[in-house]
Write a structure and sequence with these properties.
The chain folds into two domains: about 35 residues; about 90 residues. The protein is built from four helices and two strands. The protein has a two-stranded antiparallel sheet with strand order 1-2. Helix 2 crosses helix 3 and helix 3 packs across helix 4.
Length: about 130
């Protein structure tokens, strides 16, 4: 059944209101901000998430170090760049209003951020070495 133009407009308005900061409202009419994905985790789960991402980043950092030895940052450096990029992408996406209802979406977005961060820093290092 096709949607009417009015229902599409209502869905768009609902999406825009949800993305804007302070999207929720309290009973007194004031806006409240929704918590970020990472701030919902207690310390134990956050530590396990950071440890799991760091372990996988270290394994991938070792492979990257073998491939691009002098152009990279070493195994530990690659791990740090990938781990920071992973969590930074999730935090930035939460700040811009992306809801990660499923863990798979957050992981895919984090991986994209990790490789974007790694690529940007590698390109910056290559550019500075040419000066």
């Amino acid at each position: 059944m096709p949607m009417a133009a009015v229902s599409k407009a209502k869905r768009l308005i609902h999406t825009v209101y949800r993305i804007e900061p302070g999207w929720g409202s309290r009973t007194d009419g004031t806006a409240c901000e929704r918590p970020d994905m990472l701030s919902n985790l207690d310390f134990g789960w956050l530590a396990m998430a950071v440890a799991a991402v760091a372990i996988f980043s270290f394994i991938f950092g070792l492979a990257l170090d073998a491939l691009i030895s002098d152009d990279g940052f070493g195994a530990i450096g690659n791990m740090l760049v990938l781990t920071v990029g992973f969590f930074l992408a999730i935090v930035v996406a939460n700040r811009y209003g992306h809801d990660f209802d499923e863990l798979l979406n957050a992981c895919l977005f984090g991986l994209g951020g990790a490789f974007t961060c790694f690529s940007a820093l590698t390109l910056a290092k290559a550019g500075l070495s040419r000066l």
